[in-house]
Amino acid sequence: MISIFIPVGKVSKRVKNKNTRALPKYKNGLTEIKIKQLNRFRNLIKKKKPKFFNKFEFIISTNCEKVKKITKKFSWIRLHERNRRLSVDDSLTELIEEIPKICFGKFILWTHVTSPFFSENDYYDFLNKFFNKKQANRSAFSADLIQKFIYKDKHGWISHNFKKNKWPRTQDLPKFFCANSAAFIAPISVYKKQRDRLCKTPIPIVSKDQSGFDIDTISDFNYLKKKLKNET
Fold first, then answer.
1. What are the structural domains of the chain?
2. pLDDT tops 70 at residue 210
3. pLDDT at residue 232 in the model
4. Which residues contact 72 (CB under 8 A, 6 or more apart)?
5. Could you tell me the maximum CA-CA distance found in the chain, to the nearest angstrom?
6. Of 205-209, 217-221, 228-232, the least confident
7. In this predicted structure, what is the pLDDT of residue 22?
8. Long-range CB contact pairs, 132-135, < 8 A, 24+
């Protein structure tokens, strides 16, 4: 069984009420979008009946009363009422360590409501690629591929050897993988033994197009709002 774990915080410093703030077509905002995506994912699993992943539990962990009220409407979602210790800033490590007490699956798929473009098909493709790697003791994360010229202040170019070749072709640059936070998957043993949501040698799984887009700032939120409005 795979536990799909969705932490939803109450407080957001950059975007007020980010996780439940109303959006076009979605009264309960990002939380509503994600629940609907995961429900469609459930239906997709029933239809395709994949070999390596077909049993799931869905857990929303929150300290937000509004999110609790929303979650209780869906019998297929288990609510974890997060206590104060796990709800403060910089409590991610503590929450990760709590996972073995919250989730019962052999694997944990950690995802966020702040990835509104990561659809049911993206979850299916992500899991399919992971299990087809035949490295079940490892972990994986959704990633954006970066193959560009990267400069670090006081360190110079870190994307290539500037002394050897000042301007190589971009396709010859090394590949960097940026975690976009849409999905993390690992055996529960990683959480127990390494006290982390990824092992030491995780597999980057590149997200399609803009699916890994993460709502982090008010500009991100307004972009999503505009996009949804244009779709109506």
1. 2-143+179-231 (3.90.550.10)
2. yes
3. 65
4. 79
5. 61
6. 228-232
7. 94
8. 132/52, 133/203, 135/203
Percent of the chain with pLDDT over 70: 98
In angstroms, rounded to a whole number, what is the distance separating the alpha carbons of residues 168 and 162?
A: 9
pLDDT tens sequence across 122-147 = 999 999 999 987 666 799 999 999 98
- Distant-in-sequence, close-in-space partners of 100: CB < 8 Å, separation ≥ 6: 188, 191, 192
Question: Based on the number of CB atoms within 10 Å of its own CB, is 161 exposed (0-12), middle (13-18) or buried (19 or more)?
Answer: exposed
Tokens of 71: 């979650």
pLDDT of residue 12: 77
Cβ neighbours around 79 below 10 Å, total: 15
Give the pair of three-digit tokens for residue 157: 């170019």
Tokens of 123: 């979850």
**What's the mean pLDDT in 158-169?**
87
SS3 per residue for the chain: CEEEEEEECCCCCCCCCCCCCCECCECCHHHHHHHHHHHHHHHHHHHHCCCCCCCEEEEEEECCHHHHHHHCCCCCEEEEECCHHHCCCCCHHHHHHHHHHHCCCCEEEEECCCCCCCCHHHHHHHHHHHHHCCCCCCCEEEEEEECCCCEECCCEECCCCCCCCCCCCHHHCCCEEEEEEEEEEEEHHHHHHCCCCCCCCCEEEECCCCCCCCCCCHHHHHHHHHHHHHHC
Residue 74 structure tokens: 């869906």
Q: Model pTM?
A: 0.91
